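Data deposition worksheet. Section B asks for the primary sequence of the deposited chain exactly as it was used as input, without tags or linkers unless they were present during the calculation. Section C holds the resulting structure in token form. Section D is free text for depositor observations; keep each observation to a single sentence. Incomplete worksheets are returned to the depositor.
Section A, Depositor: J.P.
Section B:
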Amino acid sequence: MDPHKPSPAVFGRHDHSSCIATALVAAEGACRAHGLHLTAVRRRVLEILLETHVALGAYDLLARLRAEGFAAQPPVAYRALGFLIAAGLVHRIEGLNAYVACARPGTGHDPAFMICRTCRTVAEGEAPAPLTPGAEAQGFRIERAVVEAMGLCPACAGAAA
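Section C:
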């Protein structure tokens, strides 16, 4: 699979337990490599985000943490999310004010997201390279780019037809 293209499996059937296990191993490795520590709350927030490929808001995460007996005040979730974002393990989806687990944890990349406006499923790929030449022509050096495309996933498009 090309790591620069989103996995079509996100919008279809795939071995999700393997998907979660692989992502957790990569996240733990990335933390070790950078001397970071996944606390129980940070790990659980990441696991919750990995359980589906659906963008979740901070209050959705808080409700899950509370139901599982974790401290569930807003700073708990926001601190965990802040750590996970800074560590490159989670992305914030600006258009939804929500969060998703990174499909390529521990790697520096400029993500592009395909977001289903109906079910909020998110597939992650790499931002298109044509941004750079246009910016460079203007004398601008891109340091970080995020592309969010809203539309319908195959399941929701089929249901709408």
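Section D:
The chain has one domain: 14-160.
DSSP finds six helices and five strands in the chain.
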